[in-house]
Amino acid sequence: MQMGALLVSFGVVFSLAPPFGVLCALLPLVLVPLGSLLKRRFVYPRIGYAKAPRQPHSARGIVIAAVVFVAVVLSAFGILSLILGLDRGASLCLSHFIPAVVGLMMAIGPWVVAQTYRLKRWYVLAALFVVGGICLPLLHIATGYDAVVLECVIVGGLSLIYGIGLFLTFLRKYPREELRHAAE
Amino acid sequence: MLQNRKENDIMAAASGIDRVIHEPARLSILAVLRAFETADFVFLLKQTELSRGNLSSHLAKLESAGYVDITKEFVAKVPRTLIRLTDTGRKAVASYRAEMDRVLSSL
Q1: CA–CA separation, B25 vs B50, rounded Å?
Q2: Number of domains present in the structure of chain A
C-alpha cells in the first residue's frame, strides 16, 4: 500500500511537473510513520505483533546479479549500436531499452522483500515491473521516460488498490468487537 | 523376555524427554516462537488458541525454565508483552525433537 502510494504520487507529480518528481523522495518520511500508525491502531490489537526472521542474503548472489545486470545493459546497447548505427541504436535504447532497464531496477526492491519474507505478492509486483518495462514500449503504449512514468502509475495503482483491498478484507475478517487489550 | 527389553528401551528413551516442552500447549507456544524472532502476547493467543490465563501460566513455566524471555514495553502508551525464544530454549526444542525421534523410532 505504501509502495503503491509512493509510485502513484511519483508518477503523477513527475508527469505534471518533472522537476518536483525529486520531492517524492521525501514521501517515505510521511508514508512510513503513517504505515506504522495504521499497524499500531488497526493491525496489532487485532492479530498481535510478530517479527519474522530475516533470511540472510549471500553477498556472492548480489554481486553476480549486479554483474549480469550491467553486462546485459551494456551488451544490448552495444549490439543495437552495431546493428543500427550509434544514433539510431542510442535512440532505440532510450525509447525501448530504458523503460525495461528501469523496470528491472524497480523490480529489485520488491524481489528482495519477497525473498526476505517469502511473500508471493512481492514476487508478483517485481514481475509486473519487469513485464511493464518491456511491454509498454513494445506495444507502442509509451516509450522512453513516459513509459517509466506510466509504469509507476500502473504498477503503483495496482499495488495501492490491492493493498487497500487487503486491508479492508483484514478489517472485515477481524472485526472491532473482538478487540482486546494488546497486553496480557 | 525380548518384549520386556524393548519396553525397557522405550521407557529409558522416554525418560529423557523434557517434560516442560512435552506438554501440548507449551509445545505449540514454542513452535510458534521458533518461527519468529519475537511475538507479542496477542499474537500467541491467536496462534495457539489458548485462553489468556492458560497462556500466561504456560509462559511463566517456560520463562522459569529459561526457554523464553518476556519483556514488557509501552508502544504509544499501550502496553505490549513481547516474548522471545532464548538460545537455551532453541537448543531445548532441538534436543526435544531429537529425543522424540529416538523414542518414536524405538516403537
Answers
A1: 8
A2: 1
Q: How far is B66 from chain A (nearest CA, A)?
A: 20
Please, are residues A153 and A141 in contact by the beta-carbon 8 Å criterion? no
Closest-CA distance of chain A to residue B27, Å:
18
Q: Please tell me the predicted confidence (pLDDT) of residue A141.
A: 84
Cell numbers at A176, concatenated: 472491532
Here the cell at position A33 is 510513520
Question: Topology of B2-106 in CATH?
Answer: Arc Repressor Mutant, subunit A (1.10.10)
Residue A59 to residues A34, A62, A64, A116, B32, Cα–Cα distance (Å): 32, 5, 9, 14, 30
Domain residue limits, chain B: 2-106
Mean of the per-residue pLDDT values of chain A: 80
Q: Is the ipTM of this complex over 0.85?
A: no
Question: Which set of grid coordinates corresponds to residue B43?
Answer: 499474537
Distance in angstroms (rounded) separating the CA atoms of residues B19 and A29: 50
Give B52 or A2, the one with higher predicted confidence. Answer: B52
Largest CA distance in chain A: 71
Residue A63 φ then ψ, to 5°: -65, -45
Residues on chain B touching A53 (C-beta within 8 angstroms): 35-37
